[in-house]
Amino acid sequence: MDRIPILRMGQFLLVTIQVDLYDRLALDLEADLVKMVSKTGAKGILIDISAVSIVDSFMGRIIGNIGVMSKLLDAETVVVGMQPAVAITLVELGLPLKGVYTALNVEKGMDLLESKIQVIEDEIDPDDDFDADNT
Amino acid sequence: MISTLITLNKDSMSVFREQDVVPFRNRVKEYAVKIKMGLVNQTKLITAASELVRNMLRYANGGNVLIEVVSRGRDNGIRLTFKDEGPGIADISVAMKDGFSTGKSLGLGLPGTKRLVNEFEIKSELGKGTKVTILKWANG
């Protein structure tokens, strides 16, 4: 069975989608990535979609899901290399892919992931604050 | 001055499994490239086609798609007709609203698809099936 390979690079996971994804493959990738984040304790996922010519609402939802799921496991997701025609189509379709970070290319995506982790290490997450005022 | 629409080429394809989606998209792309459709329009057309074919699979277990190369005056375009024998749509005006879905999707399919193409027509009869026709001009 086909599978999209997931590469581990330091504390990040790297995925390059080189084929047109059919549904099963996309769903498998979603599950594999989430499992892999949990197993490796990766802090970030970088998905390169520069070879993907079509992102429809299903694919868009999968990408969004990966972002939200990995966030729950304390990892950030960056999507890189989107083709201009895909960006135009996604917005007209009504799917602006909120919730995932994007970068122009792999290099910038890596920088972005690293800066995200830096920020998280430097500051205390405000979401973790308990309501201290209840007396 | 409205010229009539002429069909230059016809092709049809059945889509009954999710594995058929990618070959179907490739077929649409071939025709779009043949009439020298620009990349952005190609992407819009194929994305629209992908949405509709997915609807067909999800709600009607598949159906048939007619792919036509059409011409009107000096314009060339691709017309796709998606025909299924599924349950049909009870209220098309509701189905065309952003955010409406009876399935577990985002409900962007039909209204989103309409925004991506030049012409969009949907006919449905409960219990009989649904027919969706879209048209995208090469430079539309």
Q: How many domains make up the coordinates of chain B?
A: 1
How much strand content do the residues of chain A show?
Answer: 15-25%
Number of strands of chain A: 5
Can you tell me the CATH architecture of chain B?
Answer: 2-Layer Sandwich
Hey, which two chains have the biggest interface? A-B, 21 and 26 residues
The biggest beta sheet of chain A, please?
5 strands, mixed
Structural class of chain B: alpha+beta
Biggest sheet features of chain B = 5 strands, antiparallel
The CATH superfamily of chain A is known as STAS domain
Q: Helical stretch count of chain B? A: 4
Report mean pLDDT of chain A, rounded to a whole number: 88
Number of domains of chain A: 1
SSE topology string of chain B: EHHEEHHEE
The proportion of strand residues of chain B reads 25-35%
CATH hierarchy class name of chain B? Alpha Beta
Unreliable residue stretches of chain A: none
Provide the structure class of chain A.
alpha/beta
How does this model look, in words?
The complex is a heterodimer of chains A (135) and B (140). With 135 residues, chain A is of the alpha/beta class. Chain A has a single domain, classed as Transcription Regulator spoIIAA (2-Layer Sandwich). Chain A has four helices and five strands, in the order E-E-H-E-H-E-H-E-H. Chain A has a five-stranded mixed sheet, sandwiched between helices. In chain A, strand 2, helix 1 and strand 3 form a beta-alpha-beta unit. Chain A is globular, with a radius of gyration of 16 Å. Chain A starts with 5 loop residues before the first strand and ends in a 13-residue tail after the last helix. The model of chain A has no long low-confidence stretch (mean pLDDT 88). Chain B has four helices and five strands; from the N terminus they run E-H-H-E-E-H-H-E-E. By secondary structure, chain B is α+β, with helices and mostly antiparallel strands. The model of chain B has no long low-confidence stretch (mean pLDDT 89). The radius of gyration of chain B is 15 Å and the shape is globular. The longest helix of chain B is centred in the middle third of the chain and has 22 residues. Chain B has one domain: Histidine kinase-like ATPase, C-terminal domain (Heat Shock Protein 90, 2-Layer Sandwich). In chain B, strand 2 and strand 3 form a beta hairpin. In chain B, helix 1 packs antiparallel against helix 2 and helix 2 runs antiparallel to helix 4. Classes of the chains: A alpha/beta (135), B alpha+beta (140). Chains A and B meet through helix 2 and helix 3 of A and helix 1, helix 2 and helix 4 of B.
